[in-house]
C-alpha cells in the first residue's frame, strides 16, 4: 500500500502560492514607502551635515567667507589635540559627568525602591519626581540662578539660618561646577527614576515572598534579588546618563556661560566658541569630530555590554 500525503488546505498540486508572494512584495513596498519620508529627513538633516562636517574639518574654513577655505589637511586635528583649552574643556566635561552620574543612578534607584513600596498614592510620587524632567532648561536655569544669589537666594537663606556662610555659587570656580551638577540632578533624576520603577515592577513578587519564608530580611532581599534582577536596567541607566552628561551644554551656558574664567566650559561650548565666536568653522568641525569619536567609543562600550548580557 502506498502512503499518500495530503496537500495543505487551500493549495493545489503543481500550483504556486502566487497570492502569498504578491502579498509579501506588497508589504515590502508599503514598508519602504512608510520609511521613505524618515530616510529623506535622516539623510538630509543628520547624515548629510555629518559628512559635510567631516569634510569641513580638513579645510581652514571661516563663517565670514564663503566656501570651505584653503585645504588644511590634518592641521586642525593637530591643533586641537595640542590645545590646552581643548583638553581643559574635556576635563570639565568629564568632571561634570563624574559629579552627576553617581547620584543620578543611586538616588534614582533609592527613590524608585521607596515609591515601589507605597501601596496608595503611588501616582503622586511619580508625578512629583518626574515633573521637573519635563520643564524646559531655560526655566530651570532661571529658577536656580535666583536660588544661587549669594545674599538673597534661597540657598543663602537656608545656610544663614544654620549659621553657615553661603559661597558664591556661580562666581567661585570651586563651587560653580558643583552648583550646576546639583541643578542637573534635581532636573533630570525623574527619567532614571521612571526607568528603575518600571524595572522594579517587572520583578515577580513571588520571589520576595519565597525569600521571606526562607528567613531573608529586607537587606538580603535587596542584595540577592533586587540588585541582580535590576542589573540590565542599571547598565542602561548608567550608560544613558554618561552619554547625556558628556553632551552637556544648555545648563552650563545658561548659568555660567563657561565661567568664571572658563572653569566650567565643556567641550561642546568650546566648539561653539571657536566655531561661532572666533568664526573658525574648520577648526570647530575638527574638534567636534574628535569629540564624536569619544561619544562613539562610549556608545560602543554600552553596545558591547548590552550584547554580552543578552
Number of strands: 0
User: How much strand content do the residues show?
Assistant: under 5%
Query: How helix-rich are the residues, as a percent range?
Result: 55-70%
Summarize model confidence as the mean pLDDT. Answer: 88
Rg for CA atoms:
27 Å
Q: What is the H/E order?
A: HHHHHHHHHHHHH
Label the structural class: mainly alpha
Measured distance between first and last alpha carbons: 52 Å
Oligomer: single chain
Please summarize the sheet with the most strands: none
Shape verdict: flat
List the total number of helices: 13
Uncertain spans: none
Summarize the topology.
Elements: H1 18-56, H2 75-81, H3 84-116, H4 122-130, H5 137-147, H6 154-161, H7 176-201, H8 205-213, H9 218-229, H10 231-246, H11 250-255, H12 267-277, H13 281-309
Helix pairs in contact: 2-13, 3-7, 3-10, 3-12, 7-10, 10-13, 12-13
Q: What is this structure, in a nutshell?
A:
This protein has 310 residues and is mainly α. 70% of the residues lie in helices and 0% in strands. Helix 3 crosses helix 7 (176-201) and helix 7 runs antiparallel to helix 10 (231-246).
Task: Give a verbal description of the structure.
The protein is flat. The two termini are 52 Å apart. With 310 residues, the protein is mainly alpha-helical. Helix 12 runs antiparallel to helix 13. Helices cover 70% and strands 0% of the residues.
What tags apply to this protein structure?
13 helices; mainly alpha; 310 residues
Amino acid at each position: 500500500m502506498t502512503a499518500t500525503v495530503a496537500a495543505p488546505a487551500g493549495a493545489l498540486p503543481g500550483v504556486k502560492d502566487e497570492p502569498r508572494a504578491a502579498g509579501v512584495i506588497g508589504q515590502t513596498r508599503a514598508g519602504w514607502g512608510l520609511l521613505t519620508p524618515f530616510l529623506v529627513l535622516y539623510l538630509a538633516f543628520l547624515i548629510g551635515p555629518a559628512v559635510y562636517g567631516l569634510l569641513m574639518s580638513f579645510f581652514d574654513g571661516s563663517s565670514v567667507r564663503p566656501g570651505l577655505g584653503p585645504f588644511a589637511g590634518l592641521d586642525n586635528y593637530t591643533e586641537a589635540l595640542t590645545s590646552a583649552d581643548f583638553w581643559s574643556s574635556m576635563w570639565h566635561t568629564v568632571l561634570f559627568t563624574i559629579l552627576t552620574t553617581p547620584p543620578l543612578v543611586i538616588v534614582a534607584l533609592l527613590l524608585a525602591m521607596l515609591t515601589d513600596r507605597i501601596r496608595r498614592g503611588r501616582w503622586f510620587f511619580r508625578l512629583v519626581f518626574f515633573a521637573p524632567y519635563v520643564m524646559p532648561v531655560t526655566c530651570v536655569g532661571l529658577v536656580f540662578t535666583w536660588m544661587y544669589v549669594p545674599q538673597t537666594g534661597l540657598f543663602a537663606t537656608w545656610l544663614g539660618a544654620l549659621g553657615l556662610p553661603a559661597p558664591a555659587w556661580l562666581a567661585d570656580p570651586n563651587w560653580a561646577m558643583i552648583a550646576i551638577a546639583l541643578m542637573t540632578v534635581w532636573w533630570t533624576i525623574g527619567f532614571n527614576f521612571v526607568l528603575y520603577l518600571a524595572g522594579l515592577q517587572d520583578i515577580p513578587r513571588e520571589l520576595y515572598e519565597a525569600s521571606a519564608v526562607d528567613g531573608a530580611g529586607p537587606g538580603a532581599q535587596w542584595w540577592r534579588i533586587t540588585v541582580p534582577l535590576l542589573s540590565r536596567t542599571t547598565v542602561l541607566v548608567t550608560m544613558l546618563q554618561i552619554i547625556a552628561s558628556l553632551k552637556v551644554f544648555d545648563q552650563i551656558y545658561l548659568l555660567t556661560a563657561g565661567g568664571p574664567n572658563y572653569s566650567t566650559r565643556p567641550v561642546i561650548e568650546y566648539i561653539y566658541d571657536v566655531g561661532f565666536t572666533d568664526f573658525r568653522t574648520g577648526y570647530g568641525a575638527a574638534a567636534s569630530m574628535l569629540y564624536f569619536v569619544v561619544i562613539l567609543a562610549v556608545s560602543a562600550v554600552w553596545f558591547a555590554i548590552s550584547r554580552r548580557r543578552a
